[in-house]
Specification:
The protein is α/β, with parallel strands linked by helices and about 240 residues long. The protein has a single domain (about 1-195), classed as Rossmann fold. It contains eight helices and seven strands, in the order E-H-E-H-H-E-H-H-E-H-E-H-E-E-H. The strands form two sheets. Strands 3-2-1-4-5 form a five-stranded parallel beta sheet, sandwiched between helices. A two-stranded antiparallel ribbon has the order 6-7. The protein is globular and about 45 Å long. The termini are far apart. The protein binds zinc ion. Zinc ion binds next to helix 8.
Length: about 240
């Protein structure tokens, strides 16, 4: 536990919600930042204030530590990224082997903006849910990419920046387990009920693992992770 300020990249999804809890456990003041870039699953952005409020309600010290929320609009990113996340395109594997949901450079841009914001807010720590364990092959989720950005931000801002990625080496099942470990059943239920993963933005179908279409890659990953978490077995 440190009294320093941290900035969490918080989308309202499962991973960034667990990262927010992770940060609230460790830092004296925790602020959040969300990016609007024309994503099709904008529903997760609408869930952010609710998740923040619920999170603050889980513990008095979390309530005291949870600071401001920042919203950054990056419509330019949506405009230059011709992908299935920002356009009405099928979610599939592109000829280059990457899923069509890949938004080139997205995390680099997010981290650059987060670095600028953290500088202004006096935050030395930035927390993100990037993960290269059961990720979809996005090169900007790789540990090496994040470490390179940490060096770039530290040099470019002339201030020590630390990028924390608590989920980097764990899978979705372990992310559910981490939520339970940090905040018990209450946090686990918050993650299942209120966080959103589905690429199609479907919140009409409720499964034991939460809401979603049940068929897109994000839903399948989340469903399989939950099953493995509950049974201890991969499917
Ligand atoms: Zn889905």
């Amino acid at each position: 536990m440190t009294d320093e300020t941290a900035l969490v990249l918080f989308s309202g999804g499962q991973d960034s919600t667990v990262c927010l809890a992770w940060a609230l456990q460790r830092f004296g003041r925790v602020e959040t930042v969300g990016f609007r870039y024309g994503q099709r699953h904008a529903v997760e952005m609408e869930l952010r204030p609710l998740i923040r409020a619920r999170m603050a309600g889980l513990a008095a010290d979390w309530n005291a530590r949870l600071g401001e929320d920042h919203l950054v609009t990056l419509e330019a990113l949506g405009a230059i990224a011709e992908t299935a996340l920002t356009r009405e395109q099928p979610i599939a594997t592109a000829p280059d082997g990457l899923p069509t949901t890949f938004v080139p450079g997205r995390n680099l841009i997010f981290l650059a903006f987060a670095g600028a914001l953290a500088y202004r807010r006096g935050a030395r720590h930035i927390i993100g849910g990037m993960c290269e364990t059961d990720y979809s092959g996005y090169p900007d989720c790789r540990d090496d990419t994040i470490k390179a950005m940490q060096v770039a931000l530290t040099l470019g801002l002339d201030r020590r920046v630390r990028l924390h990625t608590p989920l980097m080496w764990i899978d979705k099942a372990a992310t559910f387990a981490l939520a339970e470990e940090i905040g018990g059943q209450a946090l686990l239920e918050l993650v299942v009920e209120h966080t959103h993963s589905c690429y199609l933005g479907d919140r009409t179908r409720r499964h034991d693992w939460g809401y979603g279409c049940g068929a897109c890659p994000a839903c399948r990953l989340r469903a399989e992770g939950y099953r493995k978490f509950k049974t201890g077995l991969p499917r």
